[in-house]
Design brief:
The protein has 319 residues and is an alpha+beta fold. It contains four helices and 14 strands. The strands form three sheets. It has a six-stranded antiparallel sheet, with no helix packed on it. Strands 1-8-4-5 form a four-stranded antiparallel sheet, with no helix packed on it.
Length: 319
């Protein structure tokens, strides 16, 4: 059973329930000093730790890993906009800021001058994702292998060297990352829908497989299960996800539903351990844990943070 989280509009990558059940060696009952701390206070502080660890994961990766809707303006041809000077039919490549790109909503261009001319929309069919995500079991969600790219191909008819280096401004609206959310309401066994805090990218169509919807995991201890999403009530933000099959178990509000790889969750847990040790929240010796810091002696807060960053190496944005 999970508990609604009191921090932030979006669910962190792990919940207090997930954290308390992980093999950390930390006594989370001591997270708030004092014998009179209520259970609500303890859960609230654990939620704060989960929220901070989520921010630390995103900081280590130089971008949010959860799915987001983004709009970016690039100037090219140049460093982030490659266009051939010798082949007029070869498409240009836009290197977007976040990855992996799941869907391109729109592309438009204009001359890079002041005042700028009106934007010219690039028609559908004249742009495409350079390295589409293949997904797990046909799902639109990226796998734990950190596949996918951050490049978008655009017809040379719209992005070329006609106005010289950086002569064009190109605006791209796109979806990227791993769909991730938390339940805003409890869900009963047999339900065909979930009320969640973020519907972003849960029900888009894969450009590679043509498959619609993401396959994610409901992280709820002994009631953990996998769900396949077919529809979403909104494109982003709070809404309702429609499932391909009824739930096998009941789940409380605050339960995490995610396509993020388990190693990302483990990295978030290691950042939580780092915070707990830094504040002296436990007198328990943290033994060597598989996937944790190696070497002799008791791991320090810095050791756990370093190990968490190493686990996230494949997910970090390069440029």
């Amino acid at each position: 059973m999970s508990t609604p989280l009191p921090v932030g509009p979006l669910s962190p990558y792990i919940s207090p329930t997930t954290l308390s059940q992980a093999p950390t060696g930390i006594s989370w009952d001591n997270i708030i000093p004092g014998r009179n701390a209520s259970e609500g206070q303890k859960i609230a502080e654990m939620a704060n730790i989960c929220s901070r660890s989520t921010a630390m994961v995103d900081d280590a990766c130089h971008q949010p890993l959860r799915a987001t809707t983004d709009s970016v303006i690039l100037y090219g041809p140049g460093v982030r906009v490659w266009a051939s000077q010798g082949c007029s039919t070869q498409p240009a490549i836009l290197i977007l800021k976040r990855w992996p790109v799941l869907q391109v909503n729109s592309v438009q261009v204009t001359q890079n001058t002041l005042p700028a001319p009106p934007w010219v929309p690039v028609p559908v069919g004249s742009y495409a994702i350079q390295n589409p995500v293949s997904g797990l079991y046909g799902s639109i969600a990226p796998t734990a292998a950190a596949e996918g790219g951050q490049g978008v191909l655009v017809s040379s008819q719209y992005v070329n060297w006609a106005y010289g280096r950086n002569g064009l401004a190109i605006e791209t609206q796109y979806l990227n990352g791993w769909p991730h959310c938390g339940l805003t309401e409890g869900a009963a066994s047999g339900a065909m829908s979930l009320a969640v805090d973020d519907c972003t990218a849960w029900a888009i169509t894969s450009p590679l497989t043509g498959y619609t919807g993401a396959t994610g995991t409901v992280y709820d201890a002994g009631q953990q299960e996998v769900v396949q999403v077919t529809e979403a009530s909104v494109t982003s933000g709070p809404g309702t996800l429609t499932l391909a099959a009824p739930l096998q178990s009941s789940h409380a509000a605050g339960t995490i539903v995610s396509t993020l790889a388990p190693n990302v969750g483990w990295a978030a847990i290691m950042f939580c351990i780092s915070q707990a040790l830094a504040r002296g929240a436990t007198s328990t010796t943290v033994h060597q844990i598989p996937g944790g810091p190696g070497g002799g002696g008791t791991p320090t807060s810095a050791d756990w943070a370093k190990c968490a960053k190493a686990a996230l190496g494949d997910y970090a944005r390069i440029i």
